[in-house]
Amino acid sequence: MKKDFIRLSLELLQPVSNSVWKAPNIGSIKLNVDAAYYPAIRETSLGMVVHDHPGEVHIYAIIKVEKIESPLQAKLKAILFGFKEAPSIQQPFFIVESDSLLAVREIKKKKDSFCEWESIILDIIKILREFSSCMFSHSRRSANSCAHNMARLATVVGEYNVWRNSWPILFCNPDNS
Questions:
Q1: H/E/C letters for each residue in 33-54?
Q2: Is 62 helix (H, G, I), strand (E, B) or coil?
């Protein structure tokens, strides 16, 4: 767990290109994911949002999970959760955006990860095969605010919820996701 903290702390030192949310290219879908991690109670809330090119939201989803050991595990679980909800969107090109540089880097390796959460990474890679093209992108939390807010909402709601083509509440501004 201490190694994850050190790695996540180093992420803050890395240059980041996305500080403002941008809609995906025409013909693509963007999946934004985030986790709200609470180490004292070993609980995490996950949130995800799927947008199309004009920025329209197709899916919002939240879930609360227990027994999460580290921030990295929480972020990887958020990506996996997002992928499990996303296959209902029939789009061959996918962009996955997370505010965890470490999680994005580990997934991009696609093999030989020495990460203690390698099994989650392998599950994500297995799901990736369902898409003809998938790109991972790191962004600042400010560019991932809608997914972050959804994760925080899961903390309050405390159960699995999915909203398709509708707003769960006036909680997220699609222009600021």
A1: EEEEEECCCCEEEEEEEEECCC
A2: strand
128 HSE (CA, 13 A, CB side): 16
Q: Please state, as a whole number, how many other Cβ atoms lie within 10 Å of the Cβ of residue 130.
A: 12
Determine the straight-line distance between the first and last CA of the chain, rounded to whole angstroms: 29
pTM of the model: 0.81
User: CA torsion sign, 108 to 113 to 117 to 119?
Assistant: positive
In what helix (H) or strand (E) does residue 63 lie, and over which residues does it extend?
Answer: strand 57-66
Residues with Cβ within 8 Å of residue 42, at least 6 apart in sequence:
66, 67, 68, 69
How confident is the model over 108-138, as pLDDT tens digits?
Answer: 886 666 677 888 988 988 888 777 788 888 9
Give which of 34, 5, 38, 175 is closest to 104, Cα–Cα: 34
Mapped onto helix, strand or coil, the DSSP state of residue 134 is strand
130 vs 40 pLDDT, higher one: 40
